[in-house]
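Sample entry (569 residues):
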Amino acid sequence: MEEIERFLSSRGFVSNRPIYLDATPTFSGYICIGDWRLKLELRFREGRFDYPDAYLPEWPFDLNLRSSFGYRHINDDGKVCFVDQSRTWWDSAMATELVAGCLERIERVLVDNLANAPAEEVIAQDFSGYWSAHRSLHVASVVQNKDDLIQITEQSSGRQWLVRKAEDSWLSIDAQQSPNTPWVILRLAKPPVSLNPKSWPPASIREVIDWIRQSAPDADNQLVERLRQSIQPKGKGKRGNDIRLVGVALIWPSADGDDALGCGFTFVIPDVAAKAIEHKRLKQAAKILKADGTKIIRYRLDRADPSYIQTRNRPKEEPSLKNKRVILVGAGTIGGHLGKLLCSHGAGWGANGELHIIDSDDFSIENVGRHLLGTESVGHSKAEAVAARLRLDFPFLKIQEHPCSLNECWNIFTQDCIIVDATGSQTVAIAIPDYLSEHGLKPVVVHSWIHGHGLATVALLNDRNKKGSACYRCLWQLENGKYRPRFQLSRFPEDDSPVFAACHQSFHAYAATTSMIAATQAMTILYDYLTDRVQNSLRFQVLKPDLCQKRPDTTPQSDNNCPLCCRPQ
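Predicted structure, serialized as tokens:
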């Protein structure tokens, strides 16, 4: 930090406090842009380990300054954008050079602003930063032009949501409707991106109407009409005296042509305007609102609909498990982590999407150390507890638990389902293809297991629609009454035996990370199947090379002696 201080001192900046008293100081100085000499503050929030925030402290109070430079890349509090690690990472060994680079970027932004560089696209893309909202709302549905919304509050967290009035929201289990607060949608032809320095951000209903009239000259009339439809819905009688606090959500076309959430605000309808709307004197009501100084509360609207949650972090062309029936057999140490990955990839999403979780065991205290679940689930069914946990994370998905034996669930196995075996049990892994073979079903099956005491993780994909695809039973050969693996992993197989505890309980000791690796490996091979990129259907992740043979991934063919693959149809 001393080097930064010396450099900034050479540029005329001074520290507000001595460096030795403050590890995150603020430096004040001046920067010359054209005929302007602007005061600039560099605020180091993380000391020498991160970029400073850059502020023009006179910005909020100087109308001439805002009028001359405009809002492009400058927030209403004077913060200058793009002075951060979006360009390069911070390296404390290069701190002086990076601070010099920050000053250059600040100068470039301000020079462009003073030269009236185009601002429309910039402001539309980063609008939420300019809107300077008082509060945030999560919008749980994809909103349409004529939707009416209601605002609800999560009882457990206090988060605020907007949901369609006529929709049975997936949030309704743990939420209560905020009384007398309807929201209406107002669609604009384009984002109104000209920000008036005298009245930005808008603080009253008059100012917000003036702003949105850029793209909707009759915005006042549109707003009154939408309020009338919400306050006095057809066939439900008059409610004008009941509803006074209303919300308005603005939407407008995005760059890709779809409607984008713009921003929202709430306000109390003045008495005179409310009476005019009640008696259908809409032009009078519009005039009143257009001249009204009633304060608004600005809301940031964040998309939180299932489609956004499921696709936000994935490329558009990536396939998912949407509308597929996925059956997870085993909710243990692998199955718990794998369940979360399956949900993240769309299992249980869509009109036909289903995620079934099968496990007959109860969660016990010895499971806590390496499972997705914790002590709050001890004594509960693993299937039910994992399903409940996943519903907390993905409440919009269709998840069904089956706390029973696999033999009681064969009826949910279908031709077009995807089966994921995460039990690590050879008995279950053989029972699945046995049943499928007997009943002529050909779904894809993924098996995931941990070899020995965490020597390796293994994943097998059995695409039963592909001739010659090896099932799990094909990986074992019967010799002299004993099963021998076709692909031996252990250098010392005798050490792979389980550890036996009281009452003949057995377990394999391995690190908690091993279960996560196995789950990721299984999800990866399933993802490759969805994208039609499976190069090897049997994959090994060696974790202890000193105890494990080197085993490359391969694609085994079905064994001519396999009693399941060779079963007469």
